[in-house]
Every structure is written in structure tokens, then in C-alpha cells.
Design goal:
Blueprint lengths: L6 E3 L2 E3 L4 E7 L10 E8 L2 E9 L8 H10 L8 E7 L4 H6 L22 H12 L6 E8 L3 E9 L4 H10 L3 E4 L7 H7 L4 E8 L5 H17 L15 E2 L2 E6 L4 E5 L6 E2 L4 E6 L6 E5 L4 E7 L3 E2 L4 E7 L3 H15 L9
Parallel strand pairs: 5-6, 5-7, 7-10, 8-9, 9-11
Antiparallel strand pairs: 1-2, 3-4, 4-6, 8-10, 8-17, 12-19, 13-15, 13-18, 14-17, 15-16, 17-19
Helix pairs in contact: 1-6, 4-6
Cofactor: Zn(2+)
InterPro entries: AstE_AspA_cat (IPR055438), N-alpha-Ac-DABA-like (IPR043795), N-alpha-Ac-DABA_deacetylase (IPR053138)
GO molecular function: hydrolase activity, acting on carbon-nitrogen (but not peptide) bonds, in linear amides; hydrolase activity, acting on ester bonds; metal ion binding
């Protein structure tokens, strides 16, 4: 193995084997209090890729914060080859306010690449680009569902790139959702630089989901093994992910209360009952049925819906029987609680 060289970040020079927390300065609050983006840099003794793992780009999506905390506490990092840049809170303004957005009401994940003289969101995106993305070879960005919706643990990635397909498969989430690059997103600007990047989705905003956290942590370690940053786990059984070719949100046909009849990870057949919409007086009810056979990979947990609201996110499966077996194996390997755990 080739010894690593020194690594410069945030004005600090790290020698092989060093590990340090660096605070990247951001715009001050109007109270003149300083604000920073915390970054933990782990620089291995031997050379290898540079990987960033980020969370809370949307400040209320906190599962990733816990995933990164556990990652940094992992004994596996003692054998690290290359460099890990861990950003547990990419949007400190939103994180403090328990909000998806920045104070200017902009979405950081629609503000990349940003500019040094743009909006506050654009300036933060620009700093992330220049300080973090420019130094990395690969990236994993951690997210959850939003607006009272929860997601089954899943990888979203642009699968036109072979290296990204390999990384998505190595992660080991139960399902991979091909996703077009969205303008202004972190994923778009990283991919435009020719660097493979994954978005991991799991759980719900402002809530810890233990299965989503464990799946995310295990997935990052799997990915680091695949990239040669960690030695391979001889006991790890490589699973082929379920790659869907179609997903669709089932939407409310009327406004009212929504009684959910399925759980995350459930397999449904075309025509199966997903839930029931009712008006507050009980005089009008409509059943919600599956428009096609597939898996429930996302759902509205709030029992209130307006006409047109997204209720259930269905993914069409190429081989439903095999997919169901894969999901059950993953569930049993992580926790005694299944993906249907409710708050």
C-alpha cells in the first residue's frame, strides 16, 4: 500500500493518520454571532480516494446526522485508506430552525453550484463546492422524506454512469430508484464533474428511524469497502439491489382524512386497497387502490390530505418474488423491528 501524502483542508494541513474537526466560516447571523459548517476530516495513513458524506442539506432531515455520528464512531475508520470528509450538518441555519430551508426561504439543494456574491443559499452552495466537492472523488448525500412523508431506505442515482451503478449496487439499500439529475441539486453538480454520487433516502424529517439509520450506516461502510477505502468484509454477503424502472405517487382524489392500510416495504398487487379517504362528517368516502403492482417505498404519515396530495409512492418491480425475499433478508440482518415501524 502506498503511504498517503499530507491533505490540506480549511487552512489546515493534515498528515497521514490525522483526524480533526474544522469549522468552515459562513455568513454571520444578524445578531453578529458567528456561524460555521462543521466538517470532520479523517485522513488515512495510506493513499486512496477522497469521499464526502453529507447530511442535513435540508435542515430538518436529521437521520443522516445520526448516521454520520455513528460512522465517525466506527472502529472501521482505523483502517481507512484515503480521506473521508464528513459533513453532518450542511445547512446549519435550517438545522437550528428545524426547517428544510435557509433564512431566505431558498432550498440549498436547488441552489448549486451557487456564487460567492449570490443569495445566502447560493453562497453556502458555492462554499460547499469550492471547499468540499472540489477535493473529493465520490459523494454520498443523506436525506429523508419531507412534509410528513417517510421513505423506505433507498438509493437514488443517475444510472447512465457505470461507476455510479456499481457504487449504488455496493451500498446495499433494498431498492435503487433511477433518478434524473435535477437542476440546482448537489447531485447534479457533482455528477457534472464526472464524480459518482449517491443520494440515500430513508425515514421522515425531524424523526429518528432506527432501520433507516442502520441501513444508511451499513451502506456507507459497504461503499467504502467497494472503493478500496476499507478492507472488504469477509462475512458480508453481497446482495443485488432491486432496481425499479418506474415509480409513481398515488394522489388523493378528494380532500379529507386519510386512513392508511399499508406499511412501508409492503408489496401490493394492482387493485389492492392502499387506504381510505373520508370527509370529516363520514358522509363521503373513497377507497384508494394500487394502480399497478409494486412496492410501497414512500407514504404520507399525516392523516390529513387535500385533493391532489401525494399519498403513497409505488415502485414497479421487475421480479416481485425475488424482491420480497431480498427485502426480508435485509430486514432480518439489521434489526428485530421491520420497516413498517410507526411512530
Amino acid at each position: 500500500m502506498k503511504p498517503a501524502c499530507s491533505f490540506k483542508f480549511g487552512g489546515i494541513c493534515l498528515e497521514p493518520g490525522d483526524r480533526t474537526a474544522i469549522e468552515l466560516p459562513m455568513a454571520r447571523l444578524y445578531t453578529n454571532n458567528a456561524m460555521t459548517m462543521p466538517v470532520q476530516v479523517v485522513h488515512g495513513k495510506n493513499s486512496g480516494p477522497v469521499l464526502f458524506v453529507s447530511a442535513a442539506v435540508h435542515g430538518d432531515e436529521i437521520n443522516g446526522v445520526e448516521i454520520i455520528r455513528r460512522l465517525l464512531d466506527s472502529r472501521a475508520l482505523a483502517q481507512l485508506r484515503g480521506t473521508l470528509l464528513a459533513i453532518p450538518v450542511a445547512n446549519p441555519f435550517g438545522f437550528i430552525q428545524r426547517s428544510r430551508y435557509l433564512p431566505d426561504r431558498r432550498d440549498l439543494n436547488r441552489s448549486f453550484p451557487g456564487t460567492a456574491k449570490g443569495s445566502s443559499a447560493g453562497r453556502l452552495a458555492h462554499m460547499f463546492m469550492t471547499e468540499i466537492i472540489s477535493r473529493c472523488d465520490f459523494g454520498i448525500d443523506l436525506h429523508t422524506g419531507s412534509n410528513y412523508r417517510s421513505n423506505l431506505p433507498q438509493i437514488r442515482a443517475w444510472l447512465d454512469d457505470p461507476d455510479t451503478i456499481e457504487l449504488a449496487s455496493a451500498f446495499g439499500a433494498p431498492i435503487v430508484v433511477p433518478s434524473e439529475l435535477r437542476e440546482g441539486s448537489l447531485r447534479e453538480v457533482v455528477a457534472a464533474l464526472g464524480k459518482p454520487v449517491l443520494v440515500y433516502e430513508g425515514g421522515e424529517a425531524l424523526s429518528f428511524d432506527e432501520t433507516a439509520i442502520q441501513t444508511g450506516l451499513k451502506g456507507i461502510l459497504n461503499s467504502m469497502c467497494h472503493l478500496g477505502m476499507l478492507p472488504p468484509d469477509q462475512n458480508e454477503q453481497q446482495r443485488s439491489p432491486i432496481i425499479t424502472d418506474r415509480t409513481s405517487w398515488v394522489r388523493a382524489s378528494m380532500s379529507g382524512t386519510f386512513s392508511l392500510k399499508v406499511k412501508l416495504g409492503d408489496f401490493v398487487k394492482q387493485g389492492d386497497l392502499l387506504g381510505v379517504l373520508s370527509n370529516p362528517f363520514g358522509s363521503d368516502q373513497e377507497e384508494v387502490h394500487a394502480p399497478f403492482s409494486g412496492m410501497n417505498i414512500g407514504q404520507l404519515n399525516l392523516p390529513l390530505a387535500h385533493e391532489g396530495d401525494a399519498l403513497i409512492h409505488l415502485a414497479k418491480l421487475p421480479c416481485p418474488g425475488e424482491a420480497e425475499c431480498e427485502l426480508k433478508e435485509l430486514q432480518s440482518s439489521l434489526t428485530e423491528e421491520d420497516f413498517g415501524l410507526v411512530r
